[in-house]
Each structure stands twice: as structure tokens, then as C-alpha cells.
Amino acid sequence: MTILKPILRAQCRTLTAAASRLACAAVLLALMVFSLSARAFQHPGIPLTVADLNNVKTNLNNAPWSSGYAALVADGRSSTNYTMQGPFGYVNRNNAGNYDNENAWKSDMQAAYDLARMWYFTSDANFAKKSHDILTGWATTMTNFGGIEASFDLGDYAYRYAGAADILRGTWSGWTTADTTIMSNYFANVFWPDLAIPGLVIQGSQGMEQINAAVAVAVFNDNTNKFNQVLSSFLTDADSGFRATYANGEVTDTGRDQGHAGLYVIDLAWTAEVF
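The structure corresponding to this sequence follows.
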């Protein structure tokens, strides 16, 4: 890490695009903190910490936090009356239009995340219990996430399923050691096989989605070996991760379209924050 830092700083100075500079700054900050601090996993921390949550909670009546909170409250998936769409034994996403049970899983993972935040902001344990039941319901039922594009959903929704579980784990007294084991097994046995790390990382933002999900699993599961494998892919893979940002400010997906290029930068910064 000591050798890498000056190299990374030099690359950051050559970047011209503001978004790429911002992502690069996030990466450097995360890596410096990682290299200087004790190697302990923090819960919650995927990526929201207690300090992050408290910052929002103390500003719920102030703009712009108030409008964001109003949107959260208005979402039906933030209510304890939300009707769970699953669970199912499998979810499938591939590039042939086959999306079995995918919408149910996505809706429930969004609800789990919304409810976990509502718990923290209101201190109403009913929200936490509802989020817990959604998460553990899927974790004790689902045995397969199939389809060649499974890792894309796992990356897109990493901050929802892992973020929700981590908030509850770190802040709610009703969360048990058994719950942590249930979710850890779910992430390791159902999600991790689709992420292929160490191994081939898909090009561009799609590969960054793999890395997003992988670091979320590694951190929640307190798995140092997986964490180091993901960090290595993040730093060294030529098609995704940090090396696929270029001196002129472009990223791997720049020549594809703005949506995926923007997603790449967001994924890069989010993963760096978790690290």
C-alpha cells in the first residue's frame, strides 16, 4: 500500500474530468484510511456509518434533508404495511428476457433498506422488525440467483440488501447473532458464487457492479480474505476498477454511453467509501 499511494496520487493529478477527480479523491482517502487504521470491520459501514445516519437524523427538518426524508416516508416500501413480494427459492436474470422473481426480490430489498433507515430515523422498532423479516425471509428460502447477468442486480442492490442488514446489525437490539449467521450464509452461498472474484471481472460498469456486491459481502461477513481479493481486483483489474480510469478523465464506459459512464464513476466512489 505504501508503494501504491504515490502512484495513485500521480494518476489523480493527471485527471481532467471533475467527476473522475472526485472519484479518485474518494479512492485515495479510502485507501489512506485503510492503510493507516486498524484492520477491523465496522458495522454499520456499507457504506453508511452511525455518524452518517446521525448527520441525517439531526437534519430531518432542514433542507435538503427534509425533502429527501419526505420522499422516503411517501414511498410505500417504507411502511410497515408494505406487502412482501417474496420470498422465492430462486431469482433469475439473463440477457434473454428471463427475469423470474427478479422484480419481487428487487422490491423487497428496496423495502428492507427503506425500513431500516426509517427505524433509525424514528426509533420505532416496528420498522426494524419488518426489515428484519424481509431479509431473513429471503435468506432462509432462496437458494439460487441464476442468469448470466445476476451479478448486475447484486451490484445495483448491494447498498440495499447489505446496507439494510448492516444498519440493523449495528444499531437494533433485536438483531441477534443467529440473524448475522443467516445473512452471512445467504450472502456467501447464494450471492458470492455469481461474483467470480478472484477471477474474470466483466468490463466497465458491469464489472464494477460485481466489485460493489463483492465488497459488500466481504465486509458484512467480516471476511478478510474476500476483502483482500476484492481490493486486489479493484486496484489492478484492467477492465474495471481503478486502473480503468484514464489520464484524460475517461473511464472504460465513456465510449459506450453517458449512463454507464456515470454509473462507473458512482460505483467507483461507492466501493472506495466502503473500503
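The longest strand covers residues 90-92.
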